[in-house]
Amino acid sequence: MYTQALNTAETDDRGLEDAARAAQFQARIDAEERIEPNDWMPAAYRKTLTRQISQHAHSEIVGMLPEGNWITRAPTLRRKAALLAKVQDECGHGLYLYAAAETLGSSREELVDAMLAGKAKYSSIFNYPTLTWADIGTIGWLVDGAAIMNQIPLCRCSYGPYARAMIRVCKEESFHQRQGYEIMLTLCRGSDEQRAMAQDALNRWWWPVLMMFGPPDATSQHSDASTKWKIKRFSNDELRQKFVDATVPQAQYLGLTIPDAGMTQDADGHWRYSEIDWTEFKQVLAGNGPCNRDRMAARRKAHEEGAWVREAAASYAAKRAQRQTAQAAE
Amino acid sequence: MAVANIQVSETPLVLYALRRADDALILGHRLSEWCGHAPMLEEDMALSNIALDLIGQARELYGYAAKVEGKDNDEDKLAYLRDVRQYRNLLLVEQPNGDFAQTLVRQFFYSAFTDLYWRAMMNSRDATLAAIAAKSEKESAYHLRHASEWIIRLGDGTAESHARAQGAIEHLWAFTGEMFAVDDGERSLIDAGIAVDPATLRGRWLKTLSDVANEATLALPQNDWMQQGGRSGRHSEHLGHLLSELQSMQRIFPGLTW
């Protein structure tokens, strides 16, 4: 569903790389060539991408939980099927993002273990609860909307497998976004109770969604390498502003109020938002969001309770291979 | 204000479609409970896929039941505004997911039946049911293959998976008899060439089960005591909880558009 804090390049071991190859690599990037799995790449590039792609994959998988929370309670059969299909799409995104990360040399198991051990991050937005049906509409509209802003530039990311995965992911996300907006539209055209439900959801999700774009440019430390490698093409604040500018008219059309009394439109037409409360963001990143513990517990439970199933599948596959070898030897 | 249950005029054909719709919805709902919690991502995908197929079948069958009934009921009223005594699904499909073995054995018993059932129903004299069957048959064939492969993996996997699979078979076996039961209303539809006599499918169903069980080194129970009641609304205690969740929005917010 989404990525954040893309500006986290590893720079430690770059000095060890062969300078000539590094220069050649950078020349390819500058020429907008795609880097493929078997190509030489600096260790820090590999490490940065592995971290970014796996965080993105973890976010897709953890992101199944808040929306999955409403599959069994969706208000109509049509909504139930659409939500289930959507959450299934997120799982598919996770799968092919893990596959893209694997092309860089880490296995899915290693990456998942790092997440379950709390060593790898996922998007902080999924640490907020889905309390009403309107939250499902709001996640589609805003969370997927923000994800699209982040991910469209990633379709041109210098690493080929990631860029290609993003093309497919973006197509599905934009479908999800329209679906979410349509849920909101239905609520806003409904009863007073439904409109209040929609407004309440917007009130709760607005600020956390703005935080999805990561810390303000003024305080970001590592954008340089990712920008130079053309992994990241726009700054956090640029993407955030683009998102706000696109979203305000959509909220107006719904008849909803953005929960920011200080918001103004400047002479260039940009909607200027008030200062974001980064303390909250830091708290959620530190594990103190409303659902951090629940999300991790749910993923660990699924992993632990599924262990015997994965062992059975592995054991059966080994037995079968053994039988085939024995048969071939006869 | 809670919404009152709708009343359905259960003519034999309405009831027939409703029973199959309820089977598909309740099992689809159960499978959807796995979404985000499965033992591996591939199974999150697969179980959601099967759930989507079943919910899709349910919608078509509800739509047809409503059309045949000819009142102002629709798929959502039929799904959301009948209580536990009005639901007509098999006891098998409402059984809780339990562990992965129980979910897959439940699916295996059901899909081994529906695979044969929908294929036979493609010859129904009722054009709508035949069309629904043509679509559902393809889906059920995949569901059966998926479940069979898992029964074999679990049965012939580790000692633990074998024990869990065998336990699930014994636990769920008593709910399989209901699939083959027929009442007077259904008998009239069978005689008219609209419905299939499930008794004619039982031999092949058992053969599918025993072939897969053999390969899986699992045993089918000898016990032939079978639980009945789902088709006439006498359910296990589990269904009421499932419905209270499934129907909560329509019960809390009556009559709104979502």
Automatic annotation (TrEMBL), chain A:
<keyword id="KW-0560">Oxidoreductase</keyword>
<dbReference type="InterPro" id="IPR012347">
    <property type="entry name" value="Ferritin-like"/>
</dbReference>
<dbReference type="InterPro" id="IPR009078">
    <property type="entry name" value="Ferritin-like_SF"/>
</dbReference>
<dbReference type="GO" id="GO:0097266">
    <property type="term" value="F:phenylacetyl-CoA 1,2-epoxidase activity"/>
</dbReference>
<protein>
    <submittedName>
        <fullName>1,2-phenylacetyl-CoA epoxidase subunit A</fullName>
        <ecNumber>1.14.13.149</ecNumber>
    </submittedName>
</protein>
<dbReference type="InterPro" id="IPR011881">
    <property type="entry name" value="PaaA"/>
</dbReference>
<dbReference type="InterPro" id="IPR007814">
    <property type="entry name" value="PaaA_PaaC"/>
</dbReference>
<dbReference type="InterPro" id="IPR052703">
    <property type="entry name" value="Aromatic_CoA_ox/epox"/>
</dbReference>
<dbReference type="Pfam" id="PF05138">
    <property type="entry name" value="PaaA_PaaC"/>
</dbReference>
